[in-house]
Amino acid sequence: MIEINGVKKSFPGKRKAINDINMTIPDGKIVGFLGPNGAGKSTMIKMMTGISPIDKGEIMLNGINIEKNAIKAKNIFGYVPDQPDMFLRLKGMEYLNFIGDIFNVPKEIRKEKIERLTKQFEIYDALGDHIQTYSHGMRQKIIVTGVLIHEPAIWILDEPLTGLDPKSSYKLKEMMREHANKGNTVFFSSHGLEVVEQLCDEVAIIKKGELIFYGGMQKLRDQYQTDQTLEDVFLELTNDE
Ligand SMILES: Nc1ncnc2c1ncn2[C@@H]1O[C@H](COP(=O)(O)OP(=O)(O)OP(=O)(O)O)[C@@H](O)[C@H]1O
Q1: What is the pLDDT of residues 95-115, one digit of tens each?
Q2: Pairing relation of β-strands 185-189 and 154-158?
Q3: Tally of CB atoms within 10 A around 133
Q4: Residue 240 clears pLDDT 80, i.e. is over it
Q5: Hey, whose CA ends up nearest to atom 18 of ligand 1?
Q6: Does ipTM exceed 0.85?
Q7: CA of 18 to the centre of ligand 1 (A)
Q8: Pfam families from the xrefs (predicted)?
């Protein structure tokens, strides 16, 4: 479960990037995080993952405060950033072993997982190459694999499906469903409204740093008295005119 209580964040000289957001993301659900460009999705995710300080309010991951107990909190979530351009000088295998070492994944389990996951994502043959030489999608896949080898309860993914080929995207969506079905939490931002509608149990929509909707598709339809698609409702809700 992720609890976000009264969270605010500003950057110098700008309107509030996040303005008093409250939401509880339950266990066992996939939650899609939607909002137009610049709405504050990445800013929110960076606070949830302890990368960016919170100006006001608090964020709890399975009851652990991300700022007050950062190391403990970091053991229970996995994060895939929107820009997967990290550790470029490491080879794929070096990166995965590095993650395995940090999270104390036993060597045998690690070996089996790395082989299985990277074969599923079709990057197994590139594990000996530097991440620098990987395409955007391959970089995403190696980071997703890094998350999966230490099996965190909470997944926080910033636009994870952007840039993935159809087969890998299908595979990742399947993994997200399996993870949530085991009672875990999956929270991901996306601009893909069809994917969100098809995959997510609930959606959170933000606009200019404010949460304008949180709930399931049925609640969205009831609230706006419509049987339109998520795309139609999203466009209406986020329209400024
Ligand atoms: N490091 C920063 N310094 C200053 N302003 C920032 C910084 N990071 C984000 N912002 C501002 O905060 C607001 C929210 O940006 P954010 O990147 O969170 O949006 P987003 O919803 O993730 O957008 P996108 O869909 O385009 O990725 C924007 O106005 C952005 O300019």
Answers
A1: 999 999 999 999 999 999 999
A2: parallel
A3: 12
A4: no
A5: 40
A6: yes
A7: 10
A8: ABC_tran (PF00005)
Ligand 1 atom showing the smallest separation from residue 15 Cα: 29
Straight-line distance from the first to the last Cα atom of the chain, in angstroms, rounded to the nearest whole number = 36
The two three-digit tokens of residue 135, written as one number: 């395409």
Instruction: Please tell me the pTM assigned to this model.
Output: 0.92
Question: Under 8 Å CB-to-CB from 83, ≥6 apart: which residues?
Answer: none
C-alpha distances out from residue 139 to 25, 79, 81, 110, 144, Å: 28, 14, 11, 19, 9
- Report whether pLDDT(86) > 90: no
Catalogue the long-range contacts made by 168-174 (C-beta closer than 8 Å, 24 or more residues apart). Answer: 168/121, 168/122, 168/137, 168/141, 171/120, 171/121, 172/144, 173/199
What are 197-202's contacts with CB under 8 Å, separation 24+? 197/229, 197/230, 197/231, 199/30, 199/32, 199/173, 200/29, 200/30, 200/31, 200/32, 201/29, 201/30, 201/31, 202/25, 202/29, 202/30, 202/31, 202/32
SS (H, E, C) the chain: CEEEEEEEECCCCCCCCEEEEEEEECCCCEEEEECCCCCCHHHHHHHHCCCCCCCEEEEEECCEECCCCHHHHHCCEEEECCCCCCCCCCEHHHHHHHHHHHCCCCHHHHHHHHHHHHHHCCCHHHCCCEHHHCCHHHHHHHHHHHHHHCCCCEEEEECCCCCCCHHHHHHHHHHHHHHHHCCCEEEEECCCHHHHHHHCCEEEEEECCEEEEEECHHHHHHHCCCCCCHHHHHHHHCCCC
